[in-house]
Design brief:
Layout lengths: L2 H19 L5 H13 L1 H4 L3 H10 L11
């Protein structure tokens, strides 16, 4: 399998796992997040489903200025 096909499959599987976690998130948003995760080399070497779980376990950072 060539690298382009690997990226496509990885992103599709990652997006599917994101859908399992966030079913109300629009597909375009899930696909974009999956592409961003693929772009980060630390996730590329993991199975996409495991990468999503690891990424989610880090928590979602609060927007700047929202601290109290």
């Amino acid at each position: 399998m060539d690298e382009q096909m690997q990226a496509h499959e990885w992103i599709a599987r990652c997006s599917a796992r994101l859908h399992a976690q966030w079913p109300r998130l629009q597909r375009a948003q899930r696909d974009e997040m999956a592409k961003e995760l693929w772009g980060d080399q630390r996730w590329q070497h993991s199975e996409p489903e495991l990468a999503v779980v690891a990424w989610l376990s880090q928590g979602i950072p609060a927007p700047v200025g929202s601290e109290r």
